[in-house]
Write a structure and sequence with these properties.
Length: about 325
């Protein structure tokens, strides 16, 4: 199996007769060693995100080895291991790019969404948007760092300097964030789907001081909360759990509608914001931090041919940590 291809909304199929991708100017061709499966892949496959490239190879947490360099690509050596994240290309000239906020670039292209991704044996990437992967991680362990880790890190930084941090939705991003937060001396309160005792136990083993159902209030008021679950009804729930002046950060790319709620929940300088994409600077900072913590990822690997099975397990909450495809 060469790649999993998304043809039209809600219809995925396998293909064995694709042409080999060729690296263009400034691009590298990678032999994919591992590609993590992200909730965003489900949103793309389910047609919840507008205008994907079609046909499309999903996957934006790619660890690969450089096998060919396109014209002018000299940042990495042949056989060097690199990581490819969600942010695949930016224009460099729009107001956001010039302000150092390339995550908001008006022309940005995204791996596994508007560019082909890593559910494949080979992938191409613009070398300027790739990262060097610390040597202490295996290919499969490193893959979830490229989105779950990076977006988690950016979300975590946005919360400021909380003593008590709540995390709603204890999946791939949360299991990394809890380690970063503890490294920074924060108390983590983990919220899972109702009755997910296994997930709550997993959160405690990673160092959460408390874990429970998202419907329940934590034993202490929180200074900040991050919502990774794509459930809009968690916004008022999290606002209720944070103290005056607290912040609720929405870390996902898609969320169901947020129900209306009384202004009292926002009053007293509470705030709600979202985190969109990543910058290359986030990546450089995060990959310098990861081995210092050191962040350990929990992964469940699947052969590439079982991409749909991995996606289904993610959908039904059967994955502890992150699912990773290994060609
Ligand atoms: Zn731009
Ligand atoms: Zn992702």
């Amino acid at each position: 199996m060469r790649a999993m291809i998304l043809r039209a909304p809600q219809h995925a199929l396998d293909s064995a007769d694709l042409p080999s991708p060729q690296p263009g100017p400034g691009q590298v061709l990678l032999q994919v060693r591992a590609c993590a499966v992200c909730r965003t892949d489900l949103h793309v496959i389910d047609g919840e995100l507008p205008k994907p490239k079609l046909p499309l190879i999903p996957g934006h947490e790619i660890v690969g080895v450089v096998t060919q360099r396109g014209p002018g690509a000299e940042r990495f050596q042949i056989r060097e291991r690199v990581g490819v994240p969600w942010l695949g290309w930016t224009c460099g000239i729009c107001e956001y790019c010039r302000e150092g906020r390339e995550n908001l670039c008006a022309q940005a292209r995204f791996t596994g969404y508007t560019l082909d991704g890593g559910y494949a044996e080979y992938a191409t990437a613009d070398e300027r948007f790739c990262f060097r992967i610390p040597g202490s991680y295996s290919d499969a362990e490193a893959a979830p760092l490229l989105c779950a880790g990076l977006i988690g890190y950016r979300s975590c930084r946005r919360t400021g300097d909380p003593k008590r941090l709540g995390i709603y939705g204890f999946g791939a991003a949360a299991h990394i964030v809890v380690q970063v937060a503890r490294f920074h001396g924060r108390e983590v309160y983990a919220f899972t789907r109702r009755g997910d005792l296994q997930g709550q136990q997993f959160a405690r083993t990673l160092g959460a001081v408390w874990a429970g159902d998202s419907a329940t209030l934590p034993p202490e008021q929180l200074d900040a909360a991050i919502i990774f679950a794509p459930a809009g009804e968690l916004v008022p729930v999290a606002l209720r759990a944070v103290r005056k002046g607290g912040i609720v950060v929405c870390g996902g790319i898609h969320m169901s509608d947020i129900p209306s709620f009384p202004y009292d929940l926002l009053w007293e300088e509470r705030s709600v914001c979202s985190i969109a994409n990543l910058t290359r600077r986030d990546g450089e900072e995060f990959f310098a931090l990861a081995p210092r913590v050191p962040i350990r990822t929990t992964v469940q690997t699947f052969p590439l041919i079982e991409a749909n099975k991995a996606l289904n397990h993610l959908r039904t909450g059967k994955i502890q940590g992150a699912a990773v495809l290994v060609p």
